[in-house]
Amino acid sequence: MHRVKVRVVEDALDANNTIASANRADFDREGVTVLNLMSAPGAGKTTLLENVLPGLPGVRPGVLEGDVAGSLDADRLADRHIPVTQLNTDQGFGGECHLDANMVRSALPALPLADIDLLVIENVGNLVCPAEFRVGEDARAMVSSVTEGEDKPLKYPLMFRACELVIVNKVDLLEHLDWDREKFEYHLDGVHPGVPRLYVSAKTGEGLDEVRDWLVKLATRAGAPA
Amino acid sequence: MHRVKVRVVEDALDANNTIASANRADFDREGVTVLNLMSAPGAGKTTLLENVLPGLPGVRPGVLEGDVAGSLDADRLADRHIPVTQLNTDQGFGGECHLDANMVRSALPALPLADIDLLVIENVGNLVCPAEFRVGEDARAMVSSVTEGEDKPLKYPLMFRACELVIVNKVDLLEHLDWDREKFEYHLDGVHPGVPRLYVSAKTGEGLDEVRDWLVKLATRAGAPA
């Protein structure tokens, strides 16, 4: 029973990777750099994007907004004049807990790729499955809020291992929490030694310049001819 | 393609429900009331259990601790002399994002059911899939932290709809947040009208007596002969 289950999942991941490669080829053809942005529910992905994407120097942003249901986040980003396309995962079942390459592929015709340099795919809020499904991205980043506690790298190791940047959000609340930065970094380096980490408050703006720098570098590097 | 996918999932849920019924029969035979406790990562489930389970009047508690990896939470509960069994979901793959009935069934032999009146199954931190998989529980409760924002019922409707109690945690941080209780309740009643809700701080102890009362009533009601 157990072996059968694993085999089915591996087949599903093979199919996903094939479609992810097709997405990637389409993005490359249009010169679009793609960031897969992941986090637990309520870690602050949308607030971060609202505050770093407008006015990103030399980079035209766009967002593909993944949610189980609703379009609240997409509406917030549209209010900031960021091109945004909504992708809901609740078709026909209780809702998928992650975006996969085929869902992203189904959204491609709705994306104005010619007008976008950096496409951020805001994944469904979940610290497990999004890390297992590539969607055709150039890089992956995650947001980890200090209110979630410093043990999360140990409890969700694949997510922290799968990303190229960890954005530690809500540092404006640190003075009201027992959150221990040293302990968090010890756990983080235990699962992903040396991964870049930026401490920010999407609400107050602290640290957001470094996030903008990282995004501009990503878009420039990946957009350059090979 | 889409229809095939839905059919596979439904078959998986059928099998899950069959095993959940078997679990439930075993729990009933031993006179154990079972609560499936769910939340996003870092919402405070373990801190809540640490503080409400010891000394619960007339009810002997036990915990089945579900995590992708690690045993940090189980260790914390064992420190409080609460009988706890660890169940990790990372066997053979990146990790399951929820507990299912078969995983719980595999843990039954390790649980001292004869010494437990109320078994709390602490699910994997995730607001999507745990709501789709019954494990043999009598009731389901979820913890929603105010730091996650007031829009979560709209974004994860199945989770808020699937539970009999919503425990709103971290109210000690309210004075530092823009969280709007009226807006949260409006969204909550939109997806699950009138569901009981308790406002608590697992950290300061505020509101925990009401959680204890709810747990005692649950254990007493469900434990009574039909």
How would the blueprint of this fold be written?
2 copies of one chain form a homodimer.
Chain A (H helix, E strand, L loop, with lengths): L1 H28 L3 E7 L5 H8 L8 E7 L4 H8 L4 E5 L12 H7 L10 E5 L16 E7 L6 H4 L1 H6 L2 E5 L11 H11 L5 E3 L8 H16 L3
Parallel strand pairs in A: 1-4, 1-5, 2-3, 2-4, 5-6, 6-7
Helix pairs in contact in A: 1-4
Descriptive account of the structure:
Two copies of one chain form a homodimer. Chain A is of the alpha/beta class. Helices cover 39% and strands 17% of the residues of chain A. The first copy, chain A, has eight helices and seven strands, in the order αβαβαβαββααβαβα. Chain A has helices at 2-29, 45-52, 72-79, 101-107, 152-155, 157-162, 181-191, 208-223, and strands at residues 33-39, 61-67, 84-88, 118-122, 139-145, 165-169, 197-199. The first copy, chain A, has a seven-stranded parallel beta sheet with strand order 3-2-4-1-5-6-7, with helices on both faces. In chain A, helix 3 links the parallel strand 2 (61-67) and strand 3 (84-88). The radius of gyration of chain A is 17 Å and the shape is globular. The N and C termini of chain A lie far apart (46 Å). The relative contact order of chain A is 0.18.
